[in-house]
Amino acid sequence: MSWLVIDRIDADGSTLECTLRPSADLERFFTETPFRVRYDRSIEAVPDAILAIPVLANVCPVAWANGADVYVDAVDATFAQALEDVKTSLLAMHDFLEGGTLYARTCVDVEPPSNGSRDRDAKRESDSALLFTGGVDSTCSYVRHREDDPTLVSIRGWTITPDPADDENWAHLRGRVSDFADQRGLETAFLETNALSALDHAMILAHYKRFVDGAWYSSVGHGLGLLGLCAPMAYTRGIADVYVAATHWEGIDLEWGSRPDIDDHVRWSGTQCHHDGYELTRQERLDVIADYVEQEDSTLELQTCNRRMDGNCGECEKCYRTAVGLRLSGLEPTAHGYPFSQHDYDEIRRALEGGAWELGEDERNMWADIRDRVRETDPETPQERAFFEWLLTRDLGALVSESTSPLSHRLLRAGARNTPNRVYNVAYPTWKAVQSGLDRVRTR
C-alpha cells in the first residue's frame, strides 16, 4: 500500500512549513527537505484547513501517479472536493495516473475573513488576484480585468528557482512587477516556494517524462500547484477570485497542467480560481494588448524572453515569435521591449529551417496562429514579404523536435526507473551529479 502523510503544518510569521512522510515505495519521489512557502505578509491567523492547501496542491498529483492515499490533519471541505474534480480531469488526460484517496481528520468549510478583518496595507482594495509575469498571456488578462484592480501575484519556485543563483532574476521580476503595479495603483503579492525541491523533481522526471510532452510540472502539476500556493495569500487579503492566464486556446488539446478543466475546478472557501483568456489565441491576446496600448499606455513593455529576466534578448525563439506577433497586431516591437529589424526575418527563417531551436507542439501551434494572421496581413517590406511567403508554405509539423532530451538523459532516466530503492538511495547522488554535468555541457 502506498501512502503519503502530511505532517506538522506550521505557520511562523510569513512562512509555511511542513514535513512529508512517504511510504517506502514513494521515498524516491521526495527529498528530506520540508515543504516551504514564504509569503509577504503574516499567515499566522490563517486556519489550518487553508494552510494545508499549498502542500496538497503540489504533492497530490505525485500521489495520484502512484495510486497513493494522502493523509492530513485538516483540510478545507471546498478544496477537498476541488481535488476530486481536478483528479478526474487529470486521470482523463493522463493514462499513467492511477488516483488515490485523501483522508483528513477534520474536513470543514472555513469561514472567509470579513472585510473588516482583512490584512490590508494596500493602495487600493481588491477582491481579485492575477498570477502575473508581464508576458503576453498575463498582460492580456490584466487588460481584460483591469477595472477590478487585481492584486498581481508573482511566484518564485518554478521558472525562477529558489537557488541563490536565481536571486538576481527574482529581483528583476519583482522590480518589474512592482513598477507595473505602482503605475496603476495596484497591490502585489510575492510568494517563494521550494515545492520542486521538496519533491525530487529529477526522479519524478525519470519515471514519468516518457508519458508527457514536456516536464512533469508543466504537463501535470502547475495549474493546481501554483493556484494552491495562493490560498493563504488569498485568505489574508479576502480575495474572492484568482485568475491564471491561459497558455493555449480552444482547439488545442494538449496534455498540459493548466487548462480550463483543471484550473476552473480549483477553489476553497471564499475563493474561486479561473482559467482566463482560453477563448483567445495568442495573436488575439496581442490584439487586446495593442488596443490597450493605443488607448491607455503607449509605452507598455512585455517580458517574455527565455534567456533573460532583465529585458528581452531579441534573439531567442520566443523573443522573435513575440516580435512578429506584435508586428502583426500593428505594434512596433522596438517600442515594446524587443530589439527587432527587418533583417531579423532572415534570421528567424534560418533558425527554423536549420533546427536551431528545440520546438514542441506549443511552438508549432503558436507559429500556426501567426501564419493564420499572416494570411490577412499585407507585408510592408521586401524582407517581411519573403518571410510571410515562406511561412505560408512551410510544413510546421517538421519544426517539432523528435525528442526534447538527448539519448544520454533518456538512458539515465530508464536506469533510475528500474533501480531498486535500496540501491537507488546509494547511487542516486552520483546519478544526479552526472545528469547535472550533462545539463551544463548541453547548455553552454
Q: Outline of this structure?
A:
The protein is α/β, with parallel strands linked by helices and 444 residues long.
Architecture overview:
Mean pLDDT is 89; it is low at 120-124, 402-414, 420-431 and 434-444. The longest helix is centred in the C-terminal third of the chain and has 23 residues, at 421-443. It is globular and about 70 Å long. With 444 residues, it is α/β, with parallel strands linked by helices. The protein has an 11-stranded mixed β-sheet, with helices on both faces. Helix 4 (167-184) links the parallel strand 7 and strand 8 (188-193). The chain has 3 domains: 3-116 and 188-276, no CATH class; 303-399, no CATH class; 407-443, no CATH class. The protein has helices spanning 48-65, 77-93, 136-145, 167-184, 195-198, 201-208, 216-229, 231-237, 260-263, 282-295, 317-328, 344-354, 361-374, 382-393, 407-417, 421-443, and strands at residues 3-12, 15-22, 35-38, 69-76, 102-108, 128-131, 151-156, 188-193, 241-245, 267-268, 271-276.
**N-to-C terminal Cα separation, in Å?**
44 Å
Task: Tell me, briefly, the overall form.
Answer: globular
Q: How many beta-strand segments?
A: 11
Q: Please indicate the percent range of residues in DSSP E strands (runs of 2 or more).
A: 5-15%
Helix content: 40-55%
Strand arrangement, major sheet: 5-4-1-2-3-8-7-6-9-11-10
Structure annotation, total helices: 16
The largest pleated sheet is described as:
11 strands, mixed
Order of helices and strands: EEEHEHEEHEHEHHHHEHEEHHHHHHH
Fold topology:
Layout: E1 3-12, E2 15-22, E3 35-38, H1 48-65, E4 69-76, H2 77-93, E5 102-108, E6 128-131, H3 136-145, E7 151-156, H4 167-184, E8 188-193, H5 195-198, H6 201-208, H7 216-229, H8 231-237, E9 241-245, H9 260-263, E10 267-268, E11 271-276, H10 282-295, H11 317-328, H12 344-354, H13 361-374, H14 382-393, H15 407-417, H16 421-443
Parallel strand pairs: 1-4, 4-5, 6-7, 6-9, 7-8, 9-11
Antiparallel strand pairs: 1-2, 2-3, 3-8, 10-11
Helix pairs in contact: 1-2, 1-7, 3-10, 6-15, 11-13, 15-16
